[in-house]
Amino acid sequence: MSALEWLGEIGSALLRIVPRLRVIPSTHAGVAFVRGRPRPIAPGCLCLFWPLWTTIVVVPVVRQTLNLPSQTLMATGPGGVRAILVSGIVVYEIRDIRAALTQVHDLDEAVCDLALASIKEVLWKRSLDDMATHGGETDSALRQRVAAKTKAFGLRITNVFLSDCAPCLVIKSSDDTRTRYLPMGAEIAEE
To answer: Which pLDDT score is estimated for 128?
Structure first.
């Protein structure tokens, strides 16, 4: 280690003792973990903190959209039970920043998992015709279910809706780890 690197480390250690000032934008909020205890920081706030024993985490609290990955479910339709490919979108705002940052490690991942489970629960007993004719009721049921499951995270779920819902053909070969989804009636190409 050279003398300059050594002096740089001493300088950075000394800077951890000096208090710092941080501006929180009006679209964000945060939590200051002071000696491990969470204290909320309001949007648009000027925050003075001691970096030696305080860690600040800031996230956006305004409207956010989460695009859910596709999943395959079984539904009844013309000709019996069929595989359908569904995906959705969740729109939410953070209302309680303390809960959002302390109740779950990865907020987006937790909302995604709970929303996918809710889609499965809501669509499990519905037919394709029912989904097509009562789309608004399906979206409302999804919103209520996701809102109930994420209430502990301090979120306000403004909307949950299906972005895709179509019959598909699921192909998985025994020597291939990939799963392929094909629209009904599509030709299967050999590789």
So the answer is: 75
Right CATH number for 64-183 from 3.30.420.10, 3.10.340.11, 1.10.375.10, 3.30.479.30? 3.30.479.30
The pLDDT assigned to 73 comes to 85
Domain ranges in the chain are 3-60, 64-183
Task: Give residues with Cβ within 8 angstroms of 149, minimum separation 6.
Answer: 114, 117, 118
Q: How many residues belong to the chain? A: 191
- Give residues with Cβ within 8 angstroms of 16, minimum separation 6: 51, 52
Report long-range pairs for 24-30 (Cβ below 8 Å, ≥24 apart): 24/58, 27/60, 27/61, 27/62, 28/58, 28/59, 28/60, 28/61, 29/58, 29/59, 29/61, 29/94, 29/97, 30/56, 30/57, 30/58, 30/59, 30/97, 30/101
Which parts of the chain sit beneath pLDDT 70? 1, 77-79, 170, 172-191
Cβ neighbours of 187 (radius 10 Å): 5
Only one residue has tokens 């940052």, namely 101
113-141: pLDDT as tens digits: 999 999 998 888 777 777 777 777 888 99
Q: Where are the beta strands (DSSP E) in 61-106?
A: 64-67, 71-77, 80-94
| pTM exceeds 0.70 for this model | yes
